[in-house]
Structure formats: structure tokens, C-alpha cells
Amino acid sequence: MKVEMLRKDAMVLRDKKDFLAMSVDLLRNNEYLTGLNENERDEIKCYVQRISNRLGTVELNVCTVRDQAQEDSLHHVNSLIDLIIASEDPVMSRQKCQQYLNACSTTDTSVYTDFDPSTIYTDKKFESVLLGCTLDDQKTIKKRLQALLVYLTQQTIVH
């Protein structure tokens, strides 16, 4: 029980680190910086870079035991998510991210009591690959997609 609590605490800390990294990235790419004079912009960029560097000194790792099929599924899921990130169209990326996130929600029915998966559009290919991942990986993927969706929404609002 203590080992599971330690794993859970480490995952919470990892999530906090990821949230901070995303916040730093949003600050770094914030269009409001363009309204500042060059010295103010440089000062803020240096400060953000120092925070980013300091955050980079924190390493948290919780290992998940996987068989080869689960490794392959996780690799495939990450490749699909990477395609979203690499896309040049933020609107399409956001839509695809939402479909992937919907697929995560259909695999986690514990959240819903009266849930009908047919009422939400999901990417079936992504969902089938996701189901090959461990439950820990599915939770991590869902959190990653939630953070990515927030980021992509910010990008489409800005542009």
C-alpha cells in the first residue's frame, strides 16, 4: 500500500512539473510580449529561460511494467499524438486531439454513470491502439491529451 501511495505521489509531482513546463511554454510564446519594449521583453525571456532551466533539473520517473504488445501500442499512440503536435493546422490539430481525448473517455467508463459512447465522436483507430496500453499509460495519455488540448485551444484563440 505504501509503494502504491509513493507511485501516486510521484505521478502527481510529475503532473505538476508538466503543468509548469506547459505554463512556461505559454509564457515564452505569449503574443503580449510583443507589446513590451525590447529591454522588458529580453528581461522576461531571460527570466522564463531561467525558470525553464531550473525546471529541467527536476527528474521524476515512475516505471510501468509492459509486455511487448503494450510497448508497441504505447509507441503507436505516442506517434499519433506526435503527428498532432507536428501539424501546421492548429484547428485540425485541436479537433483531432479532442477526438483522441474522447477515445480516452470511452475507455474510462468509471467517470460516467449514464455514459453512451456512441454520442461522442472518437477516433476509432486511436481508441483501438489505446486499448492495447496499460491502464497507467491510458491515464497518462489522457492527461497528456488534456494538456495538449488546452495548449492547442490557446494557440487557436491567439491566431
Your description of this structure?
The chain is built from six helices and no strands. With 159 residues, the chain is mainly alpha-helical. 13% of the residues are buried. About 4% of the residues have low confidence.
Describe the secondary-structure layout.
Elements: H1 2-28, H2 38-55, H3 68-86, H4 90-107, H5 124-130, H6 135-158
Helix pairs in contact: 1-2, 1-6, 3-6, 4-5, 4-6
| Average predicted local confidence, pLDDT | 85
Radius of gyration: 18 Å
What fraction, in percent, of the residue positions are helical?
Answer: over 70%
User: Count of DSSP E strands?
Assistant: 0
Largest sheet: none
Secondary-structure element sequence?
HHHHHH
Principal-axes geometry comes out as: flat
Low-pLDDT segments = 109-115
Q: How much of the polypeptide forms β-strand, as a percent range?
A: under 5%
Could you give the distance between the termini? 48 Å
Q: What's the assembly state of these chains?
A: single chain
Class from helix and strand fractions: mainly alpha
Helical element count?
6
Summarize the structure.
The chain has 159 residues and is mostly helical. Helix content is 71%, strand content 0%.
List descriptors.
159 residues, mainly alpha, 6 helices, 71% helix, flat
